Amino acid sequence: MTVFLIIIVIALLGITFWQMSKILKLSKSQSSEDPTIASDKDNKIQGYLMLAFLIVFNIFMLYNFWSYSKFYLPEAASAHGEDYDRLMFISIGLIMVVQVLTQFLLHYFSFKYKGEKGKKAFFYADNDKLEFIWTIIPVIVLAGLIIYGLFTWSEIMNVEEDEDTVVIELYAYQFGWKARYAGEDNTLGKANVRFIEGINTVGIDESDSYAMDDKITSELHLPVDKKVLFKLRSQDVLHSAYFPFFRAQMNVVPGMITQFGFTPTITSEEMRNSEYMVDKVTEINQIRKENSKELVANGEMALDPYEFEYYLLCNKICGISHYNMQMKIVVESEEDYKEWLAGQESFGETMAKQEENNKQ
Amino acid sequence: MSALANATVAQDHHGHDDHGHHHKETFITKYIFSQDHKMIAKQYLITGLIMGALGILMSVLFRIQIAWPEQSFAIFELLLGEKYAPDGVMNADAYLALVTIHGTIMVFFVLTAGLSGTFSNFLIPLQIGARDMASGFLNMVSYWIFFISSVIMISSLFVESGPASAGWTIYPPLSALPEAIPGSGMGMTLWLISMAFFIAQSLLGSLNYIVTVINLRTKGMSMTRLPLTIWALFVTAIIGVVSFPVLLSAALMLIMDRSFGTSFFLSDIYIKGEVLAHQGGSPVLFEHLFWFLGHPEVYIVILPAMGLVSEIMASNSRKPIFGYRAMVASILAIAFLSTIVWGHHMFVSGMNPFLGSVFTFTTLLIAIPSAVKAFNWITTLWKGNLQMNTGMLFSIGFVSTFITGGLTGIILGDSTLDINVHDTYFVIAHFHLVMGISALYGLFAGVYHWFPKMFGRMMNKNLGYVHFWVTAIGAYGVFFPMHFIGLAGLPRRYYTNTAFPYFDDLADTNVLITVFAIITAVVQLVFIYNFISSIFYGKRATQNPWRSNTLEWTTPVEHVHGNWPGEIPSVYRWSYDYSKMNIDETDYVIPGQDFVPQNVPLQKNEEELNH
Ligand code: HEM
Ligand SMILES: [Cu+2]
Ligand SMILES: [Cu+2]
């Protein structure tokens, strides 16, 4: 297998290195040079290597930004997501400035001041002014970031429920998600895992008058440009509802209801047709085609071509299939959303059908 | 060697044997149940290195699975067996178990016990001028408890239902319920028992270190003359004593929830067709308790490394550490702040958002002392006369990875930004660089630097150079690209990413990362080889090979019980008088020698500084 070959080659490489330096050592011990303490020659070589490393490291960082920046998620599909991305880019920008500067100084000094016999180091123990400056600069910069961040944070987290808010319960279990919509009365019925029985899989309290019109679905549909508030409930262990495209995440905690709200702003259709996504999906399908060739050659099924949909992931380790606990999300116009919801069976209907079946 | 003669000038050699007990040592009392802090340090080091080798091997295994998901590898079949790697394909159980035990081993066994345990034991008595720890016996006990703890953790790998697999953070209910994941059965029980032992050894050790530093400093060794290593190790011990008991209580409560039907952390759970009786507990409470230790723990890991690096950098730059007082102040500030930032791990845990704001504030505060330290290290290099010994290279590497990893902390510490990168590979990249790799570099720097003192022989520098450069490139190769994978929204602790075609274009990068990981892991063999062969065949060390100022270099090369054969030297100055000039600026204070050891009294031709 090619993969195995790669590994072997690498292992051999390591061993070669090892042998090389052993030879180096043997040859060294013939001369009078001390094989254990850095000599002027070592200082020089290592100093130059520091300089080389600085250059290679910078090129590597550039390469990373150049070819991996495209991994960054597409334009945020939620109202607050724009603020989020702006804050993120500002922070990354600031960080990279500091990174490049400090790494330069560190490695350049290591090169510039490499030791030589007879050279005198500068006895320099303190400088209050300098230290004050580099205490105060981070204070100011961080204060700016904190204030900006906290404003955004409180805006995101303080979701006020009003008439217009769409309240949806997200129900997590090993290993999947369900959504519960409130139905006509706009109010979710009471629920607790203690009520789980038979087809009442999410534990709805059948005695609650608000419960019967609730609708349980295995896809999450959201109306575009309307505020959505998620009430999160877990059946068993911790999960985390992670909506990367909407810059949203909240843990799902058994024994308590957590919440997160956002306003979706880009429909699935629009996202699918965005330049970013068209390019990305083309590339992914290219990769999948390549991989399929190998699979087919081995007598296995080819991979399906990929079409973009928003999805929800679980982002808190929850067991064996944690890696595959997903739900499709559809963002659509309000009409489409209403139409879809009207077509879903209500909890009352499901129960009635069940009763019917039992009678027969 | 006039330099050496000068260095020991102030040390009298006449007071023979005021330290009289020369009892016979048997093999067992000398090498196994030794009460000598130097031997105990070596025991900690070697146990830590063995655990480290296992931990790194595990990471290589699960990295192979990530790069080539669900493909067959002979090495899996060999190491994991038919049950966990049927036909050589690693299964999800095995993946989660490996990740969990890898994390546990690296954080606790390698970088807490292996790093701070080794160097606290070794350096505290030697650098403060004490004959041994306050209690040699307790010190021995704490090593053996650590040993038992390691054995239990390793043995948990072999139980029928598999080792703990709920992540090293062991959040309940997953860790409490064997129904939820098989690793939460016997494996988790052993994990908890092992950690209880671990905490016990850590507390015993820490108390010993604290008492020793407070009581046993030699004459003249005021707190403001302590080397930064000792400051760091001392404060680390204090943080340990404050925070480890909280983890112990969390572990005990978890044990009760698991075995005795209490409900501290459990409520409203339906699993495997049944509703559990537990009612009223909260997993969020566990998260608070866990991170009340967990966050200080990362400083328990990094502070000793910072201390070692400060010392090694000053000595090899032939310059005083820049801003000694600011360095001490920042250690204290970090220690204090580290106990009030734990909530930054819980921004999206369901905790009150207002608390999130508070923790963002305290977290970004802690960036300030950290920044001051980084700037001070860089200034220490400025206009130095840098001796590029391997210890020095790893110290420079430490500052580099600490900055790279620390900077992304500004993103993760910001509650808003954490929302979308929490628990993704961005976090993995961040904490490996700032804590894992940095502390590992600190450990290597310390081993290369103090090896002559530990074993009386020197390590080979050329092997050291190969080790450093390949590791330095490999570590960035592994963890720098990981940031971008995290920014793509890829969660951690995923057995495979193939369930989401959206992540297909990350596959190549994951292969690249794994290749770097394998190279990095393989090159550690060079270190192991250098370490072992130097113990037996290394060049014999001179008394003070790096021409350093601290007291350990005034002890004889051959270890003696009680450290100094004669009287303990007195201390007259701080430990950073490197390249100090005499009053007329014509020569060094001691002519022809660019360092003045701590035990040399103030000379007539020098200016007194405030240390
Ligand atoms: C060759 C070196 C290493 C490699 C390639 C490596 C790789 C990884 C990766 C990829 C993960 C994430 C796995 C996942 O979430 O699915 C991980 C987890 C972890 N690693 Fe490492 N690591 C290395 C060394 C270290 C070191 C030195 C430390 C010390 C702090 C460390 C501590 C951890 C911890 C605490 C976790 C989290 C475990 C969990 O999620 O429960 N690792 N490692
Ligand atoms: Cu999960
Ligand atoms: Cu933390």
Automatic annotation (TrEMBL), chain A:
It is a multi-pass membrane protein. SUPFAM superfamilies: Cupredoxins, Cytochrome c oxidase subunit II-like, transmembrane region. PROSITE patterns: COX2_CUA, COX2_TM. GO terms for biological process: ATP synthesis coupled electron transport. PANTHER family: CYTOCHROME C OXIDASE SUBUNIT 2, CYTOCHROME C OXIDASE, SUBUNIT II. It comes from Mesonia algae. One of its GO terms (molecular function) is cytochrome-c oxidase activity. It is an enzyme of class 7 (translocase). GO terms for cellular component: membrane. Pfam families: COX2_TM (PF02790). Keywords: Electron transport, Membrane, Respiratory chain, Translocase, Transmembrane, Transmembrane helix, Transport. This is cytochrome-c oxidase. Its main location: membrane.
UniProtKB/TrEMBL annotation, chain B:
It is a multi-pass membrane protein. The chain crosses the membrane at residues 44-68, 94-124, 136-159, 190-216, 228-256, 289-310, 322-342, 354-372, 393-413, 425-451, 463-490, 510-532. It holds the Pfam family COX1. This is Cytochrome c oxidase subunit 1. It comes from the Bacteria. It comes from Mesonia algae. Residues 1-22 are annotated as: Disordered. GO terms for molecular function: cytochrome-c oxidase activity; heme binding.
